[in-house]
Specification:
One of its GO terms (molecular function) is succinate-semialdehyde dehydrogenase (NAD+) activity. The chain has about 475 residues and is of the alpha/beta class. Helix content is about 35%, strand content about 20%. The chain is built from 13 helices and 22 strands. Bound molecules: NADPH dihydro-nicotinamide-adenine-dinucleotide phosphate and glutaric acid.
Length: about 475
């Protein structure tokens, strides 16, 4: 298969492919078939320490390069990724399960972060501020934060690495990345391409491991790591925050979501249905910004459920390489068990499934697109991140009701609503307690826009011109004694 060209089995530390210090390996499994793709280095705490040491040694020379030099290397990295986008997409689909077209979209999305931050590297402007003293000026410069550790999830095995590594490198920071155990291969391929592009040794390190706690502990407590950037569950985000407390780590945390998706009775119904399909079923519902709770105003509730169910029923479930497939497998048996539990709980509390509600006959990890109607307001599916292709649809009365329901969550990542009333659009966009709001749009992600949440969905922003700031420190320099 073409992806053999980008398949690497060893961890990547200090610019070299290495076995783990104890020689152990773990298996990477294809979730669609259950087959082992390959065995790879199972790194230990010692390997994590080595990676941090190599990043520390690389810090000064990498930060000392001009922004233009870093930009040129990163541009070459972008070009190599795009040149191999097809192989990278096949590798991603094989280890993660998402349909090939979606994987290709992710490779391009990830590459766009490399391109974007290569350009942003040259715009790390400071400020010159008038001082209250006549013979002084206030200068503000931006400097790299230091060695960065990144811990990433399996749902976007390429883009979540690129979204962290690209701003780190652009800012002048070396990075040590621990990819998810389920999907380490895309990370290794990206790092090897960075090497080909001329990224010096130690600037990117990939510590593959099945020992998340042991390796994570080192990455999040080590005194030579200045910053930790994490994407994953709120539960692990809390552990990372606690671990970082002793050495006051800078933190970027992209955590869980519970996105409300609101359809007002003045909405364009077809547009709302298409938005819900995209928002809910992308990546089989395994995205932190996926619509988790769909609120529809009473007057159009039945019409919405009918149209949404008819279109969702057409989505084909299957392996990533089958034609016209829209939904791949879930990542593992725990994910399927969680979805089954949430659906059972909702049905026990009075909901009914208009479509789906069960596993697909495609295999153990495949779950059918599911729509639940008349979901009770105390169902678990409305409180917890579903991370599967299940859409609970709930009726609401009026605008105030919709806002109260939408904000009734400890999460605050994304929210969506559909309305044609301009006044309502402003009111609701301002009232939603979310970091990201889609108005008449079901997918908001874009490299140019800041991605991140409020409340317990996290800290910091990724992407956009704000995204570089997470990897920079401000230094204030008072330039005094200027009078003759
Ligand atoms: N915001 C988001 O994008 C995501 C949200 N989630 C939510 O989390 C749920 C569980 O998914 P899961 O994959 O278990 O998410 P986790 O938060 O457990 O995993 C995310 C990353 O953290 C690592 N990790 C796990 N435990 C520790 C630890 N103690 N210290 C440091 N790193 C650690 C994981 O490693 P390893 O893979 O080796 O366990 C992985 O690299 C999902 O159902 C979903 O609700 C999950 C993924 C992404
Ligand atoms: O689930 C995530 O954390 C990644 C979201 C991908 C994106 O849309 O940017």
């Amino acid at each position: 298969m073409a992806f053999d060209q980008v398949l690497h089995q060893k961890a990547f530390i200090n610019g070299a492919s290495v076995d783990s210090s104890d020689g152990a390996q773990f298996a990477v499994i294809n979730p669609a078939t259950g087959e082992t793709i390959t065995q790879i280095s199972d790194c230990t705490a010692r390997d994590a320490e080595k990676a941090i040491a190599s990043a520390k040694a690389a810090l000064k020379p990498w930060a000392a390069k001009t922004a233009k030099e870093r930009c040129e290397i990163m541009r070459r990295w972008f070009d190599i990724v795009i040149e191999h986008e097809q192989e990278l997409a096949e590798l991603l689909s094989t280890e993660q399960g998402k349909p090939l077209a979606e994987a290709l979209g992710e490779i391009r999305y990830g590459a766009a972060y490399i391109e974007w931050f290569a350009e942003e590297a040259r715009r790390t402007y400071g400020d010159l501020i008038p001082s209250a003293k006549g013979d002084a000026r206030i200068l503000v410069m931006k400097q790299p934060v230091g060695v960065v550790a990144a811990i990433t999830p399996w749902n976007f095995p390429n883009a979540m690495i690129a979204r962290k590594a690209a701003p780190a490198l652009a800012a002048g920071c070396p990075i040590v990345i621990k990819p998810a155990e389920d999907t380490p291969l895309s990370a290794l391929a990206l790092a090897q391409m960075a090497k080909l592009a001329g990224v010096p040794e130690g600037v990117i390190n990939i510590v593959t491991t099945s020992k998340a706690q042991e390796v994570g502990q080192v990455l999040t407590t080590h005194q030579d790591v200045a910053k930790v950037s994490f994407t994953g569950s709120t539960e692990v985000g809390r552990i990372i925050m606690r671990n970082g407390a002793e050495t006051i780590k800078k933190l970027s945390l992209e955590l869980g979501g519970n996105a409300p998706f609101i359809v007002f009775d003045d909405a364009d119904l077809d547009r709302a249905v298409d938005g819900a399909l995209m928002s809910k079923y992308r990546n089989s519902g395994q995205t932190c910004v996926c619509a988790n709770r769909i609120y529809v105003q009473a007057g159009i509730y039945d019409a919405f459920v009918e149209k949404f169910s008819a279109k969702a029923a057409e989505l084909k479930v299957g392996g990533a390489f089958e034609s016209d497939v829209a939904l791949g497998p879930l990542i593992n048996t725990e994910a399927v068990a969680k979805v089954e539990e949430l659906v059972a709980d909702a049905i026990e509390k009075g909901a009914s499934a208009t479509i789906g509600g069960s596993k697909s006959d495609k295999g153990d990890l495949f779950y059918n697109p599911t729509i639940l109607r008349d979901v009770s307001r105390n169902a678990r599916v409305l409180r917890e991140e579903i991370f599967g292709p299940v859409a609970p649809v709930i009726k609401f009365k009026d605008e105030a009701d919709a806002i109260t329901l939408a904000n009734d969550s400890e999460f605050g990542l994304a929210g969506y609503f559909f309305s044609k009333d301009l006044g309502r659009v402003w009111r609701v966009a301002e009232a939603l307690e979310c970091g990201i709001v889609g108005v008449n749009e079901g997918v908001t992600s874009a490299v140019e826009a800041p991605f991140g949440g409020v409340k317990q969905s996290g800290l910091g922003r990724e992407g956009s011109h704000y995204g570089l700031d997470d990897y920079l420190e401000l230094k204030y320099v008072l330039m005094g004694g200027l009078a003759e």
